[in-house]
Specification:
By secondary structure, this protein is an alpha/beta fold. The protein has helices at 23-37, 64-72, 92-107, 129-143, 196-205, 224-241, 252-261, 267-285, 305-312, 328-338, 341-344, 351-354, 366-373, 379-388, and strands at 8-12, 45-50, 53-58, 79-87, 112-120, 147-149, 156-162, 165-169, 173-174, 179-190, 207-217, 244-250, 290-292, 319-320, 391-395. Strands 1, 2, 3, 4, 5, 6, 7, 8 and 9 form a nine-stranded mixed sheet that branches. Helix 6 (224-241) links the parallel strand 11 (207-217) and strand 12 (244-250). Helix 5 packs parallel to helix 6, helix 8 (267-285) packs across helix 9 and helix 8 packs across helix 14. It is elongated, with a radius of gyration of 27 Å. The chain starts with 7 loop residues before the first strand and ends with a strand. It binds adenosine-5'-triphosphate and magnesium ion (MG). Adenosine-5'-triphosphate is lined by residues 190-192, 194-197, 214-216, 275, 293-295, 299-300, 302-303, 350-352. Magnesium ion is lined by residues 192, 194, 350, 352.
Amino acid sequence: MFNMKFNSFLIKYGEIGLKGKNRYKFEDALVFNIKKAISPYLSNFNVYKEQERIYIDINSDFDYNLLIEKLKNIFGIYSISPVLKIPYTDDFKKLENSIIDYVKNIYGEKHFTFKVKTRRVNKKFPMNSDEINMELGHSILVNFENTKVDVHNPDIYFYIEIRNHINIYSENIEGAKGLPVGTSDKGVLLLSGGIDSPVAGYMISKRGVKLEAVYFHSPPYTSDRAKDKVIKLSKILSQYTGSIKLHIINFTDIQLNIYEKCPHDELTIIMRRMMMRIAEKIAHSVNALSLITGESIGQVASQTTSAIYTTNACVNIPVFRPLIGFDKEEIIKIAEKIGTFETSILPYEDCCTIFVAKHPVTNPKLEKILQSEKALVSADEMIENAINKEEVVICNYET
Ligand code: ATP
Ligand code: MG
């Protein structure tokens, strides 16, 4: 066997614990998503749940940093701890030897203060938690002369969990939190090439919603580079959300038609309403129950409250706008954290910016917009056509 400081990873999943009878569904989804995220290396690991914990046992040599990087992106994981897992024993001496080996392997001669924290889930063990803490604390002190106990603010906590087996660990690497993707109904993300919508997708996916995405482009007014940028953004997002099915809709005819027939100061609003109608139809066809946009109140003319009211009025499906109260700087911070920012700021044209009026209405009235839209006599047909001609790209993360 290869020599190792630990032989498993312990996955904790905070919020899932709240879900009562549905709990197993969340756990199963999380196990499934972990297996999927590490599928190329799955033969190195054994992933399973046991007693309100998920374990990833290590079977053979693997890339530690790569594994942690993958696990850190999986929603539903609260923390990741590399553990030394030993078989259950009643024999305190055996436990003591294991923890001494553990400390030696991981911390060597380092100087640090520590505290031992024991959870005795399995009450068969002949000592109680306080006794174990005291005795193991003493052993560590005696065996490692550079250590000191600090019960209030230690550098290191040594966690001992006595279950059907015994876990020894001292590190809780922060996970992505949220809920496992796939535990909420699907949603359709309106994904432009901008900064905001990828962040909106990330946030809703964090609540367990499985995403499909829709992108509207207007060739030849928008280029392939602009489309490739959105595909790239979907691929980046997919490391958190899992594989994303991206629906690419040719919006040129619709936009030209609006441009020709409707007042120019209303172009953006009417365009946005068309996008919402198409997205709603796509949502119905893929059993999604929500739309998701990157809007934030007042950020641009098309995102004043009356503009959002007017855009929203053409659909019946719930529209999630997770960024609604965020400032741009706050959104940018998240975009940087999730790795979409650099791609989002590439300066390629967007269909909304090409057919835009110099002075768009900031206070549109729904009755007036409905009146203007009457000029689009074959709107339904154009919508059907655009959907029938969609291009679909399945986006997965590429390293
Ligand atoms: P983003 O940074 O997401 O592009 P934005 O600040 O540029 O947002 P708008 O252009 O007003 O805002 O778009 C508002 C929202 O409408 C976007 O967040 C996105 O959800 C959707 N949207 C805009 N343009 C497109 C497009 N070409 N394809 C798909 N969705 C779009
Ligand atoms: Mg935009």
